[in-house]
Design goal:
This protein is α/β, with parallel strands linked by helices. Helix content is about 20%, strand content about 40%. The protein has 2 domains: about 60 residues, Signal recognition particle alu RNA binding heterodimer, srp9/1, CATH 3.30.720.100; about 55 residues, Signal recognition particle alu RNA binding heterodimer, srp9/1 (2-Layer Sandwich). The strands form 2 sheets. It has a 4-stranded mixed β-sheet, with helices on one face. A 4-stranded mixed β-sheet has the order 5-8-7-6, with helices on one face. One of its GO terms (molecular function) is methyltransferase activity.
């Protein structure tokens, strides 16, 4: 069994996945637009080029997504990135926080040398974590 993550967007799925691919080292391995889907004839013209299903390999996980009219940013779940170094946590935090909303700024906690919670400009909620080195 494997757990993957599925995120809905209100028209920015491709932009988000391309951004994650470019800046987080992911790889988009699938992207189908609504125009190529089974309901293409029943969609408003503006949604034909929006994403019906996308797949991004990111680290050892898969992030999938779609554009859904009226989709709201995720509120109760976070895509969690466990980063290898504090410097990488700081880089990713700066990248994802740009134009986004910070819930908890990047800081040291009792369980991590770096930890943050934020929502990026595409509406994806992220938890960033660099654990304390083993003692």
């Amino acid at each position: 069994m494997r757990t993957d993550i599925y995120v809905n967007y209100d028209g920015t799925c491709e932009d988000a996945f391309r951004f994650y691919e470019q800046h987080l080292g992911g790889k988009v391995t699938g992207l189908t637009t609504h125009a190529n889907g089974p309901m293409s004839g029943r969609l408003p013209e503006a949604w034909r080029d929006k994403v019906l299903h996308a797949r991004l390999e990111l680290g050892n996980a898969v992030l999938m997504g779609a554009d859904i009219p009226g989709a709201e940013p995720m509120r109760s779940a976070y895509v969690t990135l466990t980063l290898d170094t504090a410097a990488e946590a700081e880089r990713v935090y700066a990248l994802l926080a740009d134009g986004g909303q910070i819930f908890m700024k990047l800081e040291t906690t009792f369980f991590a040398s770096r930890f943050a919670q934020l929502r990026d400009r595409f509406g994806t909620s992220w938890m960033l974590l660099h654990e304390h080195p083993a003692r």
